[in-house]
Amino acid sequence: MTPSPGTNAKCEVSFTVNGEAKKLLAHPMERLLDVLRNDLKLTGAKEGCGEGECGSCSVLLDGMLVNSCLVPVAQVSGASIDTIEGISAHALMHPLQEAFLECGSAQCGICTPGMILAAVHLLEKKPEPALAEIREGLAGNLCRCTGYIQIFDAVAGAARRVAK
Amino acid sequence: MRADPAEYKFVSPGNLQAVLSLLASEPAQWLPIAGGTDVMVLYSAGKLPNRKLINILNIPELRQIEVFPDSVRIGAACTYTALRKHDNVSREFPLLATAASWTGGIANQNRGTLGGNIANASPAADSLPALLVYDAEVTLISARGARRVAYRNFHSGYKQTALAADELIRDISLPRRFSEYLSHARKVGARNAQAISKVCLAALGQIANGAIRDVRLALGSVAPVPLRLNETERALTGKKIEPPLIDTARKSVVKEIRPIDDIRSTARYRAAVAGNLVAEFLEKLAAAGANA
Q1: Residue A142 sits in a domain of what CATH number?
Q2: Which residue, among B2, B29, B40, would best test binding to A if mutated, counting the most A CBs under 10 Å from its CB?
Q3: Where are the domains of chain B?
């Protein structure tokens, strides 16, 4: 395919995903979400609204919760990304994943990876969050089927388990 | 239609001088991008007019919060999270810290910046009424030099600003003389996080000898620009807060604002709520004065 006159070349971008160094060619304005899903085949981050309102594309960027649909890949050059695929490290499941299963906190599953990453981010800052803090920490993540109560229960349960 | 990333240029010079030279060499061509919480939404929808973007998220001068004896200077690319976490900002400028906590959810607070909120110039932005009542000054910088503009003169009309085509917002400076004021912030929206306000209020007041010594009121989402209520402030200053004064304030607020009907609310609802929010603040101020 001949590039159109306005077409720019791809650039090399290097960053770390779930502890593994990655180097790939991408257009700098490609969304981190698309690079994760299409190039790296990490399909845990979902596209919900595509405009930073729903949180289903949440990932951790240098430990900070972000909506990957709003991040141009060029801005993660040299950064470290954590996605749901890497969250359990070497264990079978992260305590939050276990708690989500036990509390029935996932139904269709679209919001679940983002919910869990938002909860990971919250528990890192506040290991024993009050309910109001859990609600605030997850306020940028929308769920349209389970409802939020089971999700809040799971986060509170996981916090208790980790604190022990 | 969704944007094709191949049609966009993106550069990341990493230092302020290089950013300013590029803005000067091709004015109005390059769009600065920091956290991307506004720019990327337009980009993804294929509605971004610019095809060239310049990264300013990695410019150290724009990321600092500096505390001086008379002022706190906030770099334009400081995030809402940074504002909420900063001791002086949360203690001395609680209206700004509170507005930062309303803006989006945590993920957007981790990326969205105060300078971006100002440059985006939405009349519904939650942090802008706070800047009005705190008498903020913005420093605009270009290859030609720096200039300071009182924030109250920054927005000249709907999405119109004082920024020249080659300029960048460098910092926002807040005078440290409001920590003794009673402050009151209220957002009315469909939900707390992620919902754009129907109306939001930032208010400061001080009572002396049973009367209002100074009062500062600003509203979002009620006019083409974030609006300081100068007339209402004048009508209140020096007066004792009693029910007839609160009625006068309500009427004055409704006269001063220019709300519209849109997807989030109606002009009529906004006018009623704007009056109620100011009345609520005056009742709180009266109670604080009575207990002083």
Answers
A1: 1.10.150.120
A2: B40
A3: 5-55, 61-175, 182-291
B61-175 is classed CATH 3.30.465.10: yes
Segment B122-144, tens digit of pLDDT: 998 999 999 999 999 999 999 99
- Which structure tokens are listed for A68? 């990957």
Residue-wise pLDDT for A95-122, tens only, equals 999 999 999 999 999 999 999 999 999 9
Residue of A nearest to B4 (CA): A30
Q: How far is A133 from chain B (nearest CA, A)?
A: 11
Burial degree of B224 (CB within 10 A; 0-12, 13-18, 19+): middle
**In the 8-state DSSP scheme, what is residue B196?**
P
Residue A6 pLDDT class (50, 70, 90 cuts): low
Give me the residue from B45, B57, B106 closest to A140, CB to CB.
Answer: B106
Q: Which residues 6+ apart lie within 8 Å of B273 measured at CB?
A: B188, B198, B199
State residue A107's pLDDT score. Answer: 93
- Window B:120-179, CB contacts with A under 8 Å: none
pLDDT tops 80 at residue B194: no
Fold of B182-291: Enolase-like; domain 1 (3.30.390)
E strand or H helix that includes residue A156: helix A149-163
Amino acid (1-letter code) at residue B228:
R
C-alpha pair distances (Å), A31 with each of A44, A68, A97, B33, B112: 15, 7, 27, 14, 16
Backbone angles phi, psi at B134, to 5 degrees: -85, 10
* pLDDT given at position B195: 78
